[in-house]
Structure formats: structure tokens, C-alpha cells
Amino acid sequence: MKKIAGYSLIAVVGLLSACDKKLDQNPISSQATETFYVSRNDFIQGVNAAYNGLRTWPDRMLNLSETRSDNLYAVSDGGVREWEGINSFHKTIAGNAYVTEAWSGNYTGIFKANQLLENLSLKGAAVITDAGLRTRLEAEARFLRAFYYFDLVRWFGRVPVIERSVTPAEALQIGRSPVTDVYNLIISDLQFAAASLPEAYAAAADKGRATRYAAKGILALVYMTRSGPTYDIKGPGLGLNEWDKALTLLDEIINSKKYTFATKYADIFDYDKENNAEVIFDVQYNTGSTPVVGSTFPWLLVPDTWFQSQGKATQGGLTIRPISNNLLNSYESADTLRKPLTIQTGYTNNGVTETRSFFKKYVNLTRVPNNRLDWPINFIALRYTDVLMLKAECILHGATGTQAEVDAIVNQVRKRAGMEDPVSNITLPQLMEERRKEFAAEGTRWHDLVRSGLVETVMTNWITQEDVGKVMQPFQKNYILYPIPQSELDVKPGLYEQNLGY
User: Fold this and answer.
1) 237-252 b/e with 16+ CB inside 10 Å = b?
2) Taking every annotated instance into account, which residue ranges of this chain make up the domain SusD-like N-terminal (predicted)?
3) How far apart are CA 228 and CA 235, in angstroms?
4) Which end of the chain is flanked by fewer CB atoms within 10 Å, N or C?
5) Which helix (H) or strand (E) holds 46?
6) So what's the pLDDT on residue 51?
7) Is 165 helix (H, G, I), strand (E, B) or coil?
8) What distance in Å separates the CA atoms of residue 447 and residue 272, rounded to the nearest whole number?
9) What digits encode the pLDDT tens for the residues 292-340?
10) Which domains, ranges and CATH numbers included, belong to the chain?
11) Which helix (H) or strand (E) holds 396?
12) DSSP secondary-structure letter at 333?
């Protein structure tokens, strides 16, 4: 039997498709890999295909992190929407499309990475005479596999760990692995990537490929996430106190001098300044191609009526996902540069005035594409400001460093936002609030709350204050994790047990 490895039990099939990155590549068909991996370019196309799984990752961060957090009070006024169950902590979201996509999308990416790695092992030396290129391709694939598994463990906790091609019969015997086992693979892959990837790429066609500093940054975040509290839920936090391990990696990025703190906040997200010196790793898109491989995340949290009010075609955001009053009121009056770029407060369309606010950080009205699935902007997964603020977080958790270093980092960020008056003696909750405003609409908030140990207190208090419609369920720690998709549970009852609370 031909080996296949889709890993989502409902789609245990081999999948190869064109890469959606701005990388020099051609479409890959679903032909058998036995006949595909026969040339140097085939292997390059294979690793490019592994990047394909990143295409929906930004949408996932907005749907599952921003919407789950205290940044949005996402109660629909136009019928039942998928995001309502996410926002309101419904127990019946195992069939939610966003939850299902998080599982299947990541495992499709893992399949492609494993497929490339397996063929490198079997044929790579014979086909690719350049040992340096072989190592780089392996490191890229392992970086991506680790990226996808890290995404899975943060959403679902225990997940099946698969490092090779398996038959459908084998897949039906593979249950969920302990979180420690998932992390062991993630860390091994990222350590290899950090040691083997180049610091940068010379060719323009290679823009967007993972670098050693991207691997170090994600590995640092892995150590920080493992160091978070366990909550007794078999989730991403293991209470391991690896803050110094993370700090060492973050300092290596800082000391490399490869990246700089942008002078202007708006420049980070400028359509004409992609791949700027703030960007350590981003999800790249290419517009105007067939098939369409642009981005969809810019409009995801934006109501269609706002686009109409600006004379633009509707995009698909449908009704508004309002920003919470709690977040709106948290901005200081001097925060004059971040808030207007990130948030649209009110508009009028066809004589109807909308007073609620929504995120518009990545929207440029002069660049609205003809196809709503083809926006021409990348999504930043890790940027230099994040590295600086993660360093401050490590120090506050007891890693080597001083309060003065923490304060200096926060004041640097605040000054760029327009706040000249320095602050001192920053605490962990204060740092998280500063991160909340700095990275609003970038999908970090939920993970920040979980990692920092603040999620129970913050979300419980927030629901009490914000839920004027009385539609949200009381917060419980089991909701830190999402449910295993019902479609996966149904394939072979008993193989996966559902996460508690659902």
C-alpha cells in the first residue's frame, strides 16, 4: 500500500499544492512523491509547499486568539456567527469551523514537512549534490513542522505526534501524545533549525524563508510557554521555569544587530515597507497570481458596511466584531500613534451611524484588491519589538536582568507610541497591558494571558464588566484549550478523548 500521511483522520491523504509564499516556485501537483522528488528543484518546491500551511495561520490567530480574549466583545448583531461561540466560551464548539481548521490546517502543514524530510532522507544525497542546500532544506522543513506543532499544542494541548508517513490503518492507532512529547519534537526541530539555517538570504526570491533568528525567536517563545502555569489542564504550560533559556536566545537575536526597533510605528505595517528591519519572521503572500494566493486577514475583523461607507466592495467581514470597551478605555490620551492606526471608531453608512469600534491595523484603503481573497500584505509572526518585550517578561519572571532593563524596554515602546513621560517599576500585569496595545490585532493576546498566568483573573473580571448582553459563559480554566474537533472524534470513537469542559 502506498504510504500517505494527512494526519487529520478525516483526510488521511497525501496533499501537495502550490506554495502561497513569495518564493520562487511552481505549483506542485498531487502526484505520488515516488515520481516527484527526482530533481533539485523538486525538493525546493517540496519545502515551498510546506510553507503553504502558513497561509491561514493569520486568520486563525484573529479568530481563535483575538476573538477569545478580552480585546473583542464579539457578539453578533446579524445572526449566529462562528465567532460567537469562540468569544462566549460555548461548550458546544467542537464542530466550529475555526476549531476544525486549526487542527486540519496544522496537520496538513506537518504532512508536507514530513514528506519533504522523508524524501530528503531517501533521495536527497543522490539528487542534491550541494550538502549545504540539503541541510538548509531539512532545517526549513523542521522549523515549519515545529511551528505547526507549537500552534497545535497551544490550542489543543495533547495531540498526536507523527514524524513520518503512515498508512490509514496506522493513523487510526495513533492517539494523543503527552504535551512533553510534543514539546520534545518541537525543541529538537527548532534547535536543529537554529543551528543550520542561514542568518539571512541573499536572493530576493528567498524572502520569507525561515532564518536562524526566526528559529531562535520561536524557540524562546516555546521555552516561555512551557514555563507558564499548568492550570491542571494538560495544556501548553508545564511550569518549567525556563525563562533564562529563553532570555539567552532573545539576547542572541538582539546582539546580532540584524534587526532594529522601527522609529515609526506605522512603518512596521506599511504595504510599501514589507520585510522591514522589525520583521524577524512573517507569513508572505503573493497577489495577482493564479491560483489566488493573497491574504484574507486584513478584513477579517472589519464589517462590510465600513468598506461600503468608503466606496469599496464588501470583503466578507459581514457584521462587526466590536472592540471591547475595556481595551478602548485602556489607551492613554497620549497614545496618539498606535490607537488611530489600529482602531476605527465609528462610521456612517447610508445614513446609519455605527458607534462601535473595530480593528483595522492591516487595512490600507488605497490597496483594496479586486479579489477579497488577494490582499497584498504580509502578516508578521515575530518582530523585533516582540523580542524586546519578551525579554522584559523573562526578567520579570526571574531571569537574569534588572528592573531598569524592563523599564527601559517599556519606555522605548511607549515613546514610539507618543507617550514621552517615562514609567518605572513595571510589573508583569503592566507589561501585559502594554503588550496588549502594542500587538492589538496581531493575535498575541490570548497566548500572552495564558503564558503569564493572568488568564483566569483577567477573563473572569472582564466578563463581569463587559458582558452587558449576558451571553457569555462563566470562565473556567478548561477553556484555555479548545475542544478536539468533533469530526476527528467521530472517525474512530475512543481514539481521542475530548478535552475537559466540552
Assistant:
1) bbebebbbbbbebbbb
2) 77-224
3) 10
4) N
5) helix 40-51
6) 96
7) coil
8) 29
9) 889 999 999 999 999 999 999 999 988 899 999 999 999 999 999 999 9
10) 9-292+381-491 (1.25.40.390), 297-380 (no CATH)
11) helix 384-396
12) T
